[in-house]
Amino acid sequence: MEEIGIEHGHVHHIDPAVGYESSKLGMWLFLATELLLFGGLFAVYTIFRAKYPVLFEEQHHELNKTLGAANTVILIFSSLTMALGVASIQKGKRNLLSILLAITIICGVMFGINKYFEYTAKFEHHIYPSTSIFFALYYMMTGLHMLHVLVGVIILAVLLVLNIRGKFTEKYNAPIEIGGLYWHLVDLIWIYLFPLLYLIA
Amino acid sequence: MANHTVAETLPVPFLEKTGILSWILSTDHKRIGIMYLVSISTFFLIAGAFALTFRFELLTPEKNIMDPHTYNVLFTLHGAIMVFLFIVPGLAASFGNFLIPLMIGARDVAFPRLNLGSYWIYLLGAIIILIALLKPADTGWTFYTPYSIQTETDVIMITLGIFVLGFSSILTGLNFIVTIHKLRAPGMTWHRLPLFIWASYATAILQVLATPVVAITLLLLIAERTLGIGFFDPAKGGDPILFQGFFWFYSHPAVYIMIIPAMGVISEIIPVFARKPIFGYKAIAYSSLAIALISFFVWAHHMFTSGISEVAATIFSFLTFLVAIPTAIKVFNWTATLYKGSIWLHSAMLYALSFIWLFTIGGLTGVFLGALAADVHLHDTYFIVAHMHYVMVGGTVMGFFGALHFWYPKWFGKMFNENIAKIAWFLVFVGFNLTFLPQFILGTQGMPRRYATYPPEFQTLNELSTIGSWILGIGIFIVVVNLIKGLFNGEKAPQNPYNSLSLEWSVPSPPPHENFEEIPHVTDWTYGYGKKQNTEK
Q1: Extents of the domains making up chain A
Q2: C-alpha distances in Å from residue B310, one per residue of A154, A178, B144, B313, B507
Q3: Of the candidates B113, B217, B236, which has its C-beta nearest A40's C-beta?
Q4: CATH architecture under which domain A14-198 falls
Q5: pLDDT band at B337; cut points 50, 70, 90
Q6: How do the domains of chain B map onto residue ranges?
Q7: Nearest chain B Cα to A1, which residue?
Q8: Which chain B residues contact residue A2 at CB under 8 A?
Q9: What pLDDT is recorded for position B9?
Q10: What confidence tens digit (pLDDT) does each residue in B251-275 have?
Q11: For testing contact with chain A, the best of B174, B177, B180, B296 (most A CBs within 10 A)
């Protein structure tokens, strides 16, 4: 009887409340792995900044502070719309969630467009990952982060489509919540990257 | 095919459905466990064959069958495949998948589809590594910079494969942690959990927390080769020792990812065949967590001769000694469990006893290597090779074979030939010791590892080692043939052939799909053997 049940849709073999708790715990564990992944890069950053303070100070002037600050504002704002989205579906406001998800996605895309202009400007000045340790760090850290923004936008887009199809309700909205957790992490990492790379004094 | 009303009254064994799709699309943890078991065993045999080949080259001091480059490639592949495709996923993914839901009284893991996804990712990583064999790397399995940046061989492909395997490992660990937290049956409190579960839990924590670091390390190595970044390249202001630090930050905890599940297996086998409650349950349970914790702070003991500071070396030496404590706690408790037990020398028990003996040698020689003065002398000699194989083969592989013989009836519903299993065990045990004991002596005499040729005075011990590898190879061959033969013409296994008290033996052999008709209510721990009943709460 359960042979098919387990293979489609939600997991049938566990109680929905346990399923909700499980997915949240699972997502927090996954976020821990993300922190360690970036933690490796932060460690590399710390080591080389201590070793070459002058190089970091000099070369960080090449980075575009205005675009960096704009992207910071955009991401923080998108975290707000995401959090409001989670709150709205918990009150059963499905249409509001769709609007908020759409705004969050647009913010993510805008972030990407800014990054595109930033990178192309660097390439025009012949600044590549191989130029120096500082730019290697700049490209690796922001590049890996950009990849996460991209994945986040895809996840949010899937959630938006599912929401428009009426999948989420007041009672069942765990994917929105854990998708939101992921988006907040992406935001949080950028909040560290921005001062570390753009605002070296 | 099954009539649904019949299925409701008579549970269908999970092995009943056939056809390739019923396997590669199955989210049943027992089937996923079998897919892992078959995959890792295949890679174990392939990587073992590589070892037999280059061990043959070492029969005589000068070149016989291969040039040094081929030799370098073979030991690299032996190490990389054994580590990343066999022993790291190993017991955790195969027996962990099969046993965790059964032992805690659950119908499946917390995320069955993610579990299947982990297996596919494992396969993808394995395929990438197989493609990498077209132009195989010659760096050793550790991919040390700067050589791994300079070599002409294909380092990118194999590290990419390992990067992908990392995702599989992380997701499996995540799944198991959530399963153990959330899906325990009513009454299955933490202190009633079988010790294999505690071991799997500690392993899963390591998988989740350590693997991301190797992922970023390998990503940076790939970026060094493709984008020309210079974190590990002294010519560009980078630091090659940094790579070693990063690599071992993962790979030392990974050593415990390899061994802790085997320790869990031993903790299950010994009380059943000694017919006694496990001695020091809580000590064994918490020592698994202690090992996991300490293992994050010992990585630099791989780098004592690489040029790290004396202060760092002294601290890491001290921390390394600390790992010996929880490890010894386990060994003493197993021994105390055996004391005055009524021992049944089943083949699984023979492997468990071998584990205690061989792992103790492996562990103690590890303490020698953790001592700074001894390490300077022994580093990069055959002493390391012997030490590591006493832990990995004498420990993990013995645990793996023990687990195979112990849970075989439950998993496959068949019995294997016990007499042949004992003969095979004897050959494995003798062959293993003959292969690796001489290497301890070779190491103390100063024979360096990773060379295709050696001075003639080392020949006798190398001959013994090579002959030992043949005996070991024959032993493993018999193990495999015996177990495969049992699948086809073994007797039907009873539900509980060893009168074990653990939950997995309370369901039919093989278990039905979804394991339990009704989720059990647990009232006692699983080790209440003999007259003495439950004393632990």
Answers
A1: 14-198
A2: 49, 46, 22, 5, 57
A3: B217
A4: Up-down Bundle (1.20)
A5: very high
A6: 35-506
A7: B4
A8: 107, 513-514
A9: 52
A10: 999 999 999 999 999 999 999 999 9
A11: B174
